[in-house]
Write a structure and sequence with these properties.
mainly alpha, two-stranded antiparallel sheet, elongated
Length: 368
């Protein structure tokens, strides 16, 4: 996707251009259909276009934000590599590896789920042509397009070309979303691993008790790791907070409009199933944005307990004060935010879903 930090600039620009052009190629007919529907006061058709538009905008925001902050992420990757080597030398790599693997497994589950939704979503419009071949009727079954947009051509005559373009667009969208989100899951879990590593070092250093040399560097190493964990979190939050704000906003709009669309097609099983797949994908995407933020809050807060259960009372006063300062900082959990207005966690995810349902009922009443 043109985001690999060590590829050539030319290759990066070509890949990004292909991704962005693909997304925009469906955004244009979606906007045309929205404009014509609004002129005709056709709210139902507008509701069908809105989820497509907001999904395209979310994908554009993801890839452009990562591209704009490319140097920051390169710096983060270099710092991750450096700390990984240090932890391996110190025999502490298993701590970072365990937490980072959790992010990797979460990303794998996320990718598998969205790709599963995509396959079913793209396959449903092909049911009619397939049934016409294996179980033909006296008349041709109606062909349902993947998206009801304004392609300025006859949809029946160009069904397969339009479907191929819509399917390619859907593939690119899911590729962008799953790749960048799962990458962020691993990065955030790595940051959480630094907090866990700090707690491990504190408990290990405190076991020496008052026999520890005043010039011993073990507690200095704890402070350095804690500082690295906090600065890494701040770097990640700074690189994503604006992007998260627009993603959450567009996700809310998409979920609300897709829910209305599902009610519109409640009496059409095939169309209704396709819309439900789209709705589940949007909700799962919002959930996947919220879970890493919750993990960050939990892991950064756990360091207080790690310090408390260590043998801090058996170490020299100088080191006790150091741990006390660390505890004071830990009392303020590290929270990923969307523009500083919304915290990325599970509680707020539930609040957003409830808010979407409230807007959903309002839109339904307007439609009636």
């Amino acid at each position: 996707m043109g985001q690999y930090p060590y590829q050539t600039e030319r290759s990066q620009k070509i890949n990004v251009t292909v991704m962005v052009s693909t997304v925009v190629s469906l955004l244009i007919p979606a906007l045309l259909e929205t404009y014509s529907s609004m002129r005709e006061h056709d709210l139902d058709t507008v509701m069908e276009c809105v989820p497509v538009i907001v999904t395209a905008l979310v994908a554009l925001i993801k890839i452009l934000n990562h591209n704009i902050n490319r140097k920051k992420f390169e710096n983060m990757f270099d710092r991750m590599t450096e700390q990984w080597d240090i932890s391996e030398i110190n025999g502490e790599l298993h701590i970072l590896n365990e937490i980072t693997e959790q992010g990797s497994r979460m990303g794998s589950l996320y990718r598998s789920s969205l790709w599963g939704f995509l396959v079913l979503f793209v396959s449903l419009p092909l049911c009619s042509p397939f049934l016409d071949i294996i179980a033909p009727l006296n008349e041709t079954r109606a062909k349902l397009p993947l998206f009801k947009l304004n392609y300025i051509v006859d949809m029946d005559d160009h069904f397969y070309i339009v479907h191929l373009h819509s399917a390619w667009w859907s593939f690119v969208i899911v590729l962008i979303i799953t790749t960048i989100d799962s990458l962020y899951m691993v990065i955030i879990h790595y940051s959480c691993g630094l907090f866990v590593l700090c707690g491990y070092q504190v408990k290990k250093a405190a076991e020496v008790g008052r026999a520890i040399d005043i010039k011993d560097n073990r507690f200095k190493s704890c402070v350095i790791i804690h500082y690295e964990a906090i600065s890494f979190y701040e770097y990640m939050d700074e690189s994503t907070r604006t992007s998260y704000l627009f993603q959450v906003l567009f996700n809310m709009i998409g979920i609300t409009s897709t829910a209305v669309q599902a009610v519109m097609y409640i009496d059409q099983p095939r169309e209704s199933l396709k819309v439900i797949m789209f709705l589940l994908g949007q909700q799962f995407h919002l959930y996947a944005l919220s879970v890493p933020g919750q993990v960050m809050i939990d892991r950064s807060s756990e360091l207080i307990n790690d310090i408390y259960v260590s043998k801090w009372h058996e170490i020299p006063l100088k080191f006790e004060k150091t741990l006390h300062i660390m505890q004071i900082r830990c009392s303020k959990p590290c929270k990923l935010s969307a523009g500083g207005l919304y915290e990325m966690n599970i509680e707020n995810f539930g609040a957003i879903v409830k808010t979407c349902m409230s807007y959903f009922t309002i839109l339904l009443s307007l439609r009636e």
